[in-house]
Automatic annotation (TrEMBL):
Any single GO BP term: L-valine biosynthetic process
Keywords associated with the record: Amino-acid biosynthesis, Branched-chain amino acid biosynthesis, Transferase
Subunit structure: Dimer of large and small chains.
Protein family according to the UniProt entry: Belongs to the acetolactate synthase small subunit family.
Role description: Catalyzes the conversion of 2 pyruvate molecules into acetolactate in the first common step of the biosynthetic pathway of the branched-amino acids such as leucine, isoleucine, and valine.
Lineage summary: Bacteria, Pseudomonadati, Pseudomonadota, Alphaproteobacteria, Rhodobacterales
PANTHER family hit by this protein: ACETOLACTATE SYNTHASE SMALL SUBUNIT, ACETOLACTATE SYNTHASE SMALL SUBUNIT 1, CHLOROPLASTIC
Protein name as it appears in the record: Acetolactate synthase small subunit
UniProt GO MF annotations: acetolactate synthase activity; acetolactate synthase regulator activity
The ACT domain, residue ranges: 30-105
Pathway in which this enzyme or protein is active: Amino-acid biosynthesis; L-valine biosynthesis; L-valine from pyruvate: step 1/4; Amino-acid biosynthesis; L-isoleucine biosynthesis; L-isoleucine from 2-oxobutanoate: step 1/4
Keyword Transferase: yes
Length: 185
Protein backbone atom coordinates (compact mmCIF):
# COMPACT_ATOMS: atom_id res chain seq x y z
CA UNK A 1 0.00 0.00 0.00
CA UNK A 2 1.49 3.34 -0.92
CA UNK A 3 1.50 6.45 1.22
CA UNK A 4 -1.35 8.12 -0.69
CA UNK A 5 -3.71 5.21 0.02
CA UNK A 6 -2.81 5.23 3.70
CA UNK A 7 -3.49 8.97 3.99
CA UNK A 8 -6.82 8.69 2.17
CA UNK A 9 -8.04 5.94 4.46
CA UNK A 10 -6.70 7.50 7.64
CA UNK A 11 -9.41 10.11 8.00
CA UNK A 12 -12.00 7.45 8.73
CA UNK A 13 -10.27 5.15 11.17
CA UNK A 14 -7.20 6.97 12.41
CA UNK A 15 -6.28 7.03 16.06
CA UNK A 16 -5.44 10.69 15.49
CA UNK A 17 -9.00 11.58 14.45
CA UNK A 18 -10.22 13.02 17.76
CA UNK A 19 -13.69 14.04 16.58
CA UNK A 20 -16.59 12.67 18.57
CA UNK A 21 -18.31 10.09 16.33
CA UNK A 22 -21.71 11.03 17.83
CA UNK A 23 -21.23 14.79 17.43
CA UNK A 24 -22.94 14.88 14.05
CA UNK A 25 -26.10 13.02 15.16
CA UNK A 26 -29.22 15.12 14.70
CA UNK A 27 -31.73 14.60 17.50
CA UNK A 28 -35.34 15.68 17.92
CA UNK A 29 -36.17 17.31 21.26
CA UNK A 30 -39.39 18.61 22.80
CA UNK A 31 -38.84 21.67 25.00
CA UNK A 32 -41.39 23.13 27.43
CA UNK A 33 -40.71 26.78 28.21
CA UNK A 34 -42.65 28.63 30.93
CA UNK A 35 -42.74 32.37 30.25
CA UNK A 36 -44.53 35.54 31.33
CA UNK A 37 -47.67 36.05 29.28
CA UNK A 38 -46.85 39.47 27.91
CA UNK A 39 -46.42 41.14 24.54
CA UNK A 40 -43.20 40.37 22.69
CA UNK A 41 -42.13 37.25 24.61
CA UNK A 42 -42.96 34.85 21.80
CA UNK A 43 -41.16 37.10 19.31
CA UNK A 44 -38.03 37.02 21.49
CA UNK A 45 -38.11 33.24 21.76
CA UNK A 46 -38.66 32.82 18.02
CA UNK A 47 -35.97 35.44 17.34
CA UNK A 48 -33.46 33.29 19.21
CA UNK A 49 -34.18 30.40 16.83
CA UNK A 50 -34.27 32.41 13.61
CA UNK A 51 -31.24 34.52 14.49
CA UNK A 52 -29.06 31.47 14.94
CA UNK A 53 -30.55 29.35 12.17
CA UNK A 54 -32.15 26.76 14.46
CA UNK A 55 -35.15 24.89 13.10
CA UNK A 56 -38.57 24.71 14.76
CA UNK A 57 -40.62 21.68 13.71
CA UNK A 58 -43.61 22.47 15.92
CA UNK A 59 -44.65 25.36 18.14
CA UNK A 60 -47.64 25.73 20.47
CA UNK A 61 -48.36 28.50 22.93
CA UNK A 62 -51.14 28.94 25.48
CA UNK A 63 -51.69 30.66 28.80
CA UNK A 64 -51.48 28.14 31.65
CA UNK A 65 -52.04 30.40 34.69
CA UNK A 66 -54.52 33.27 34.39
CA UNK A 67 -53.72 34.72 37.80
CA UNK A 68 -49.94 34.37 37.45
CA UNK A 69 -50.02 35.49 33.81
CA UNK A 70 -47.74 32.70 32.60
CA UNK A 71 -47.80 30.77 29.35
CA UNK A 72 -46.27 27.52 28.18
CA UNK A 73 -44.44 27.39 24.88
CA UNK A 74 -43.89 23.86 23.58
CA UNK A 75 -41.19 23.73 20.93
CA UNK A 76 -40.10 20.69 18.94
CA UNK A 77 -36.67 21.29 17.44
CA UNK A 78 -33.79 19.32 15.98
CA UNK A 79 -30.04 19.61 16.26
CA UNK A 80 -26.88 18.00 17.49
CA UNK A 81 -26.62 17.46 21.25
CA UNK A 82 -24.37 20.53 21.48
CA UNK A 83 -26.89 22.68 19.58
CA UNK A 84 -29.77 21.47 21.81
CA UNK A 85 -27.76 22.36 24.93
CA UNK A 86 -27.00 25.78 23.44
CA UNK A 87 -30.70 26.38 22.68
CA UNK A 88 -31.69 25.48 26.25
CA UNK A 89 -28.99 27.72 27.74
CA UNK A 90 -29.93 30.66 25.53
CA UNK A 91 -33.66 30.24 26.24
CA UNK A 92 -32.89 30.28 29.97
CA UNK A 93 -31.15 33.67 29.62
CA UNK A 94 -34.19 35.41 28.11
CA UNK A 95 -35.61 37.60 30.91
CA UNK A 96 -39.32 36.62 30.87
CA UNK A 97 -38.44 32.88 30.77
CA UNK A 98 -39.05 31.16 34.12
CA UNK A 99 -38.28 27.51 33.30
CA UNK A 100 -36.91 25.45 30.42
CA UNK A 101 -37.59 21.71 30.42
CA UNK A 102 -36.22 19.25 27.88
CA UNK A 103 -38.97 16.63 27.97
CA UNK A 104 -36.91 14.35 25.72
CA UNK A 105 -34.16 13.86 28.33
CA UNK A 106 -36.11 14.37 31.56
CA UNK A 107 -37.92 11.06 31.21
CA UNK A 108 -41.02 9.67 29.57
CA UNK A 109 -43.54 12.18 28.25
CA UNK A 110 -46.88 12.24 26.49
CA UNK A 111 -47.10 14.09 23.17
CA UNK A 112 -50.31 14.72 21.25
CA UNK A 113 -51.40 16.82 18.32
CA UNK A 114 -54.82 17.83 17.02
CA UNK A 115 -55.58 18.14 13.31
CA UNK A 116 -58.56 19.05 11.16
CA UNK A 117 -58.93 17.54 7.67
CA UNK A 118 -61.34 18.65 4.96
CA UNK A 119 -62.04 15.84 2.52
CA UNK A 120 -64.13 16.30 -0.65
CA UNK A 121 -65.62 13.41 -2.49
CA UNK A 122 -68.67 11.36 -3.29
CA UNK A 123 -69.68 7.77 -3.77
CA UNK A 124 -67.12 5.14 -2.82
CA UNK A 125 -64.46 7.69 -1.86
CA UNK A 126 -66.86 9.24 0.64
CA UNK A 127 -67.67 5.83 2.14
CA UNK A 128 -63.96 4.91 2.30
CA UNK A 129 -63.07 8.22 4.01
CA UNK A 130 -65.71 7.54 6.69
CA UNK A 131 -64.46 3.96 7.16
CA UNK A 132 -60.84 5.10 7.60
CA UNK A 133 -61.90 7.87 9.95
CA UNK A 134 -63.61 5.25 12.11
CA UNK A 135 -60.46 3.11 12.17
CA UNK A 136 -58.33 6.12 13.18
CA UNK A 137 -60.96 7.30 15.69
CA UNK A 138 -61.35 10.59 13.89
CA UNK A 139 -64.59 12.48 14.49
CA UNK A 140 -66.73 14.11 11.85
CA UNK A 141 -67.10 17.72 13.08
CA UNK A 142 -68.73 19.15 9.93
CA UNK A 143 -70.46 17.64 6.94
CA UNK A 144 -71.96 18.95 3.72
CA UNK A 145 -73.13 17.12 0.61
CA UNK A 146 -69.62 17.49 -0.87
CA UNK A 147 -67.23 17.66 2.14
CA UNK A 148 -66.40 16.14 5.49
CA UNK A 149 -64.29 17.83 8.12
CA UNK A 150 -62.57 15.34 10.40
CA UNK A 151 -60.95 16.02 13.77
CA UNK A 152 -58.19 13.66 14.89
CA UNK A 153 -55.96 13.64 17.95
CA UNK A 154 -52.85 11.58 18.46
CA UNK A 155 -49.17 11.31 17.76
CA UNK A 156 -47.68 13.16 14.81
CA UNK A 157 -47.07 9.81 13.15
CA UNK A 158 -50.76 8.88 13.45
CA UNK A 159 -51.80 12.22 11.92
CA UNK A 160 -49.26 11.82 9.10
CA UNK A 161 -50.60 8.32 8.36
CA UNK A 162 -54.20 9.58 8.30
CA UNK A 163 -53.22 12.40 5.92
CA UNK A 164 -51.46 9.94 3.60
CA UNK A 165 -54.63 7.81 3.39
CA UNK A 166 -56.95 10.80 2.88
CA UNK A 167 -54.96 12.39 0.02
CA UNK A 168 -56.18 9.97 -2.68
CA UNK A 169 -59.72 10.20 -1.28
CA UNK A 170 -59.94 13.97 -1.79
CA UNK A 171 -58.03 15.74 1.00
CA UNK A 172 -58.34 19.44 0.16
CA UNK A 173 -57.25 21.20 3.33
CA UNK A 174 -55.51 20.42 6.61
CA UNK A 175 -54.79 22.39 9.81
CA UNK A 176 -52.55 21.10 12.62
CA UNK A 177 -52.09 22.51 16.11
CA UNK A 178 -48.53 21.40 16.71
CA UNK A 179 -47.44 19.20 19.57
CA UNK A 180 -48.63 19.61 23.15
CA UNK A 181 -46.54 17.61 25.63
CA UNK A 182 -46.30 16.85 29.34
CA UNK A 183 -43.87 14.77 31.36
CA UNK A 184 -45.39 11.52 32.61
CA UNK A 185 -45.91 10.72 36.27
Amino acid sequence: MNRLNIEQGSSRHSAYDLRNPNADLIERHTLAVIVDNEAGVLARVIGLFSGRGYNIESLTVAEIDHTGHTSRITIVTTGTPAVIEQIKAQLGRIVPVHEVHDLTVEGPSVERELALFKVSGDGEKRVEALRLADIFRASVVDSTLKNFTFEITGSSEKIDAFADLMRPLGLTEMARTGIAALARG
